[in-house]
Design brief:
Helix content is 77%, strand content 0%. It has a single domain, classed as Growth Hormone, Chain: A, CATH 1.20.1250. It is mainly α and 431 residues long.
Amino acid sequence: MPDAVDRRGRLGPAFTNLFTANLASSLADGIARVAAPLLAARLTDDPLLVAGIAAAALLPWLLFAIPAGILVDRIDRRHALALASAVRTVLALGLVVLVATDTLTIWWLYAVVFVYGAFETVYDGAIRAVVPSVVARPDLHRANSRIEAGEQVLQNFVAGPLTSWLLAAAVLVPLGLNTALFAVGAVLAFLLPTAAAGTHREAAADAPQVPWHRQLADGLHFILGHRQLRTLWFLSTFTGLCYSAGQATWVLFVLDRLAVPEAWFGTFMLAGAVGGLLGTVVVGRARDALGAGTVMAVANLVACLALVAVGAVPVVVVAAAGLAVSAGAITVWNVLVMSLRQALIPSAMLGRVHGTWRTLLWGTMPLGAVLGGLLGRVDLTTPMLVGGGAAAVAALGWFRFLTTLPDPADLPEETTPGPAAETAPGAVLPD
């Protein structure tokens, strides 16, 4: 059972342990995500090759997210977190060696980013599946808000400027720090309490084992059998593709078009961190005032329009403001969508459904990144105008649908977390 919230509003010791473990990995992720495009910009000035780094990072979601989801639903989820962090520790160390020996090429960077992304599918699926195991359903939005806030602070407030400054001074320092942080995350994952292992293992012990290859389509069947999740999945995927196209050449846009020095790139990205952090603060109040569905609809539209504004008026002030507004709206969207999915999906299927969801959503983003790179060859503002504009049209078209989505707190608690729930897509919330 999830830990009870104490009278001071805490989410319990199990969540605190999980949150702390995620902080180490989040800071490491932030360093990697800032360092990769900056290293690529040092190795080549071709917008398509630079955009290819984003494609290499996201392609694993198309190839490995479903197998990763099956793994998360079959093993101790603490071990899944530790495995992913340990492998990424080795990859980070390998990147240090390549840079130190002056043998890093754009193709080696592609390889490291791709394998890193493959194990990120495991980590991401596990961390999202653990949360509802240690937090009560009415508090999911609070727990997800805190996780998002921690990631925003570390990946942008800390990792962004820190990585940019250190890369400009001594490239091995942030890369070495990245290695150490992933190692810390792996150790902390092993120290998570038993509740984080997941209730799916208890259900699996009383049920016949199903071969993994027969579970590949379980997540797909569940999503397609649920009208609200199905529509939300397709809308999210199209929006994600457009947004990945819009941001594919962002680093070149900031460095070349806005003339921001490389050492100040991370500092400039603090605008997004501020917006994202504010998003985690206001999401609960906005949800209470307007309802989860309405807030999701507004946040989706605002994020797209902010991207268009940056492309339409390519100056530093507008870009910083647009980045802040967009990041805040995306954070609000992420918190509410994740909470809704965690409430709608049975615990025993969280890994597979999450993996299937990310397969299409993030698996199509490499295509968006490539399209953005091609558009960037025309002009560095074109990806934002085209990608943001197309996403805004979709946001308007499905605005009413989003307003009808339920609040996770209003949904009934899951009563059959085992295999029986897997056979009925409408078992949690019938359509």
